[in-house]
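Fig. S4 source data, part A: sequence.
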Amino acid sequence: MLRPFLLLALLIAAPAAAERLEYRVLTGGNDVGHLIAEIEDGRVVVDYDYKNNGRGPTIAETIALDENGFPTSWEIEGATTFGNRVDESYSLTGGQAVWRDATGEGEASVEAPRFYIPQSGSPLAAALLARVLLADEDRQLPVLPGGTATLTAHDTVTFEGEGGLVETTTYELGGLDLNPSYVTLDAEGDLFAVASPRFAIVRAGYEAADERLRDYAQELSTARFVRIQAEAAHDFDGPVRIRNVHIFDPESMIREGPVSVVWHGDRIASIQPNDAPVTEGETMFDGAGGTLVPGMYEMHGHISQNVALLNIAAGVTSVRDMGNENDVLDGLIERIEDGTIAGPRITRSGFIEGRSEFSSQTGELVETEEEALDQVRWYAARGYHQVKLYNSMTPEWAPALVEEAHRLGLRVAGHVPAFSNADAMIEAGFDELTHINQLMLGWVLEPEEDTRTLLRLTALDRLPDLDLSSAPVRHTLDMMVANEIAIDPTIAIHEGLLLGRNGEIAPGFVDIFDHMPVGEQRSLREAWADVSAPGQDEKYRGAFDQVIATIGMMRERGILIVPGTDMGGSFAYHRELELFERAGYSAPEVLRLATLGMAEYLGQDEDLGSIEGGKYADFFLVPGNPLEDLSAIKRIAMVVADGTVYFPAEIYPNFGIRPFADPPARVTAD
C-alpha cells in the first residue's frame, strides 16, 4: 500500500527513507500519463507528464515544506501544454517571499507563513494547499501572489484497490480562479486523487476509481450551478416588457427604435411602439436607450458546466458543440433544458477520431473504416447535426465517411487528418474545414510531416514566407468557392498562440483584464508557445498577419466564415468577433454573422437569430451602440435566454469577476 503522500509535511523535521509515489493521469478513462513523486530528507521531487491529442505538459518540480506544510522553496521547470518554457521559482527566507513565474518577478514581506500558488506546477499543489487549509480553523487563508483560498469538505467514500481499502474525503478548493477545483484526500489528509468531470489523477493501483471520482466532481459542479441558477435566474409571472430600447435588425443591419419588446414564457410576443400601453400583470424594465442584440452563436464549443453560464452572461445563447464526451454532453443538455442550470442551446457534432498514440481522448475512437462508418450511423440515429473527423483519422476513409454521412442527412466538418491536406478533404466532400491552421499548413508542410503533434501549431512559423498569391493558395480558395465550403477559423485561439508573450496581457483580453480574479490574470499574462529561439517572436507575429490576410481574402471571395473559439466562448467569443473586424468585416456585418447568419447556417432561423414576434426570446441588452463600437457587446446589462432573465452583474461575482454593467431599472407603468 502506498504510504500517505502528504505525511511529508510531518516528516520534514526528521530524515526519512526515500520513497516513490505514483499517480496515473486519466482522460475519459484512458491512461495518458503520470505524476510521480520522489520523497527524501524533507524534499519532494515531482515528475508530471501526460499527452492527450499530441500535446500536454511536461513538468519537473522540487519542493521544500516547513513543519506546518507551507512551502519554503519551489522550483519548476519544463513546458506547458502548447510548449511554452517553464522556469518558475519561489523562496521564503526571513519573512521575505520572492517568486518568478511567466508573468515576471514578485516579492512580499510576510509576517505569517503564506502558501504560494504555483502558476505552472503539477496538480500536487492542490493537495499540499488542502492539507494546510485543513489545519486552519476557518479553512481559509490568504495566499501568494494574491487572493484567499478556501476549503469546503464534501462526501467521504471508500475505494478498493491494490493497496486495500482507502477511506477518502473530497474537498472543494475555491477563491483562486474562475471555478473551484476538487481534491480527494485519504483519512490521513494525503493525496488520493484530483478529478474533474473529464480528467482525473488517481493513486496508482486505484485507477478503477476514475469514473466514480469524475462523476462526483460532476455532481459537485452541478450543485454549485444549481445554486447560482436559483439566485440568478429570473422568471416572472405574466408578460415581461423592456421599453426604451433600440433593436439590432440583422437582416437590414441597422439599429431601429426606440421601441418596446414584450415576451411571455419562452417566446417574443411582439415589438411595440415605445409608448404603447402596458397591460395588467406585466413586469417592465427601462432599457435607457440601449441596444437589444439577438442571442449570438458560438460555433466551436466543447461545452461544459463551467463555461455554460459564462456564455449566457456574455450574450451567447446558442453553442455548436464540436466534440465532447457523449454521455456528459447529454446530461448537460438535459439539465439546461429542464432549467436545473443555465446554459445555451446546444447543437451537437459527433466527434470521430482514429486510434493512434496521438489520439484525442474526446468522443469515439475507431480503428477501422467499418467502425468509423458505424459511428457515423450511430450519430445520425441520435439526431446529431454533423460529424467531425479528427487528426488521427485515416485520410483514405474520408470519401466513404462523407458519403455515408450525407446519405443520412449529416454534414461533415473536421480537421485535416495527418498526412493529408485541405484540398483532399474538399475533394472528399467535407462541408466545412475546422481551424485556419489546418487549411494553411497544407501550403507549407511536406507530405510526410505529422500534424498529430504540436507541429500543427509550431509550423505556423513558416507562414511569413508564404506567398498568398501563389497557385496553391489560389487553388484551395477556388475549390472552397466552387464547392461552397465554409471554414471555422477560430482566429482568437491563433492570436493567443502566436501573439501571447510572457508578462504581457493577452492582446484579446486587455480591456477585461482588471475585472478578472488573480488566477485568471496570471493565465492571461502567460504565453502559450515557446518564442525563445532567435527570430521566433517575429515569425509568429508575421504568421498571425498572414492568418488575418487569408481570412480577408476568403471574405472577399464570398467564403462563409463561421465565428467560433475553441476557447470556451464567453469573453474569447467577444474577441473572436473583434478579430473578424480586423479581417475586413464591419461591426454590423459581424453581428449579423454571429446571429441570424449562424441561425440560417444551422437551419434554425425560423425560431432564432433575430428579435421578432413569435421567435424564441433569446437576446441581450448593452448600454451602448455596438454597430458603432463592437466592444460594447462586452458590457452587457441583461440577457434573456429562452425567456428567462439574467443580469450578468449578479452572475459574475460567483466567478470572482467584477461586473461590467449595472442591470436595467425595473419600473412601473406611469
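Fig. S4 source data, part B ends here. The first helix runs from residue 8 to 11.
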